[in-house]
């Protein structure tokens, strides 16, 4: 759950290990996490040589009018399914006000 779950984001070894160590410990944990991250199919496909290239920073336009730009993301499918049958979350954030909204959804078709 600290590396490849829907909310984890395929973090590198150090950040995955930090997440796990916040709640768990066992002898050999560092080696286990390193091997698990190295064997991740998604990471092997998207980061073939193990190095993530950094994107140069650019200037961002200032958004000062509400609803001029909105960020939308869909998370899921999540487990377990809620009592109301929801397994997805539609997230929306207004760039100007930074007001977040989260809408539970049972399906996305």
From TrEMBL:
Secretion signal span: none
Span of domain Integrase zinc-binding: 2-46
Pfam family, one: Integrase_H2C2
Domain of life according to the entry: Eukaryota
GO molecular function, one term: nucleic acid binding
Gene3D superfamilies: 1.10.340.70, Ribonuclease H-like superfamily/Ribonuclease H
Protein name according to UniProt: Integrase zinc-binding domain-containing protein
């Amino acid at each position: 759950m600290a590396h490849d779950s829907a909310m984890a984001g395929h973090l590198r070894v150090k950040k995955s290990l930090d997440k796990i160590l916040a709640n768990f410990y066992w002898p050999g944990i560092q080696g286990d996490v390193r091997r698990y991250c190295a064997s991740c199919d998604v990471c092997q496909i998207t980061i073939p040589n193990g190095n993530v290239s950094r994107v140069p920073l650019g200037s961002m336009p200032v958004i000062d009018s509400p609803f001029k730009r909105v960020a939308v993301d869909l998370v899921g499918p999540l487990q377990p399914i809620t009592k109301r049958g929801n397994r997805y979350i539609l997230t929306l954030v207004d760039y100007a006000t930074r007001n977040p909204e989260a809408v539970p959804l049972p399906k996305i078709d």
